[in-house]
């Protein structure tokens, strides 16, 4: 497995962050993922006046991954400009489990050069996966 250029992924997530549509919460988020063939995908959060229809950056990122023919990511960066690092929400953690290996890395990064890394299994231990459907 090739090494992951975390700074490049962070820059892509930051660029996606700039495109976030967050007029209600003003909580912008960008995400970037890389697949096993080193293709990169990004997404941002898109809010809606009907709050339940809001889509998180991570889920938009994985939608782009699937739209472009990939099925798994080996790394994910979540970028915000919050003072405190922002981990993925519960819904996003479930989506991450679907498209990343248990040992794949997810990294939260911010504009203060802070970062924290989790494995997928640390983010959602004992996750419900397609194996549970059989």
UniProtKB/TrEMBL annotation:
Zn(2+) binds at residues 56, 89, 92. PROSITE patterns: CYT_DCMP_DEAMINASES_2. It is an enzyme of class 3 (hydrolase). The active site is at 58 (proton donor). It comes from the Bacteria. The keyword Metal-binding applies. SUPFAM superfamilies: Cytidine deaminase-like (SSF53927). It catalyses: cytidine + H2O + H(+) = uridine + NH4(+); 2'-deoxycytidine + H2O + H(+) = 2'-deoxyuridine + NH4(+). Belongs to the cytidine and deoxycytidylate deaminase family. PANTHER family: CYTIDINE DEAMINASE. This is Cytidine deaminase. It comes from Thalassotalea algicola.
């Amino acid at each position: 497995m090739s090494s992951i250029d975390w700074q490049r992924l962070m820059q892509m997530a930051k660029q996606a962050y700039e495109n976030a549509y967050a007029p209600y919460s003003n909580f912008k988020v960008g995400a970037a993922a890389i697949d096993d063939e080193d293709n990169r995908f990004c997404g941002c959060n898109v809010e809606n006046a009907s709050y339940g229809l809001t889509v998180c950056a991570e889920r938009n990122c994985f939608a782009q991954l699937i739209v472009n023919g990939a099925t798994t990511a080996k790394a994910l960066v979540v970028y915000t400009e919050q003072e405190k690092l922002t981990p993925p929400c519960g819904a996003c953690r479930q989506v991450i489990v679907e498209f990343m290996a248990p040992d794949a890395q997810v990294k939260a990064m911010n504009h203060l050069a802070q970062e924290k890394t989790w494995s997928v299994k640390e983010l959602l231990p004992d996750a419900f996966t397609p194996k549970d459907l059989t």
